[in-house]
Task: structure prediction
Amino acid sequence: MAAVVDGFFAEAAPYLRGRLLFVVDGRRVPSHAAPTLSDIERQTTIARLRSHGAEVIDLEPVYAVHTAQSGLGLEVGPYDHHLNALGVQMVMSAAARRLD
Result:
């Protein structure tokens, strides 16, 4: 993933102006299990994005707060793991707060 991030910034550098904001999805239900390879890659990607000067919104903490306060799910259904309307609203709200 480091090569992808580095390649993106190398290609996009001449065109980047102002702030660059990445929104990174994550586990939608907190887990106390040991980090998986996917979790480690996700954290490494976030660190790499930040090292290039990008702002990153990590959605895992946003989802964790929601889960602690509400029993409502964030996915369309058990077989469709896309965000439902509530989940999309949470993502957009997190982005809007950062852009304020």
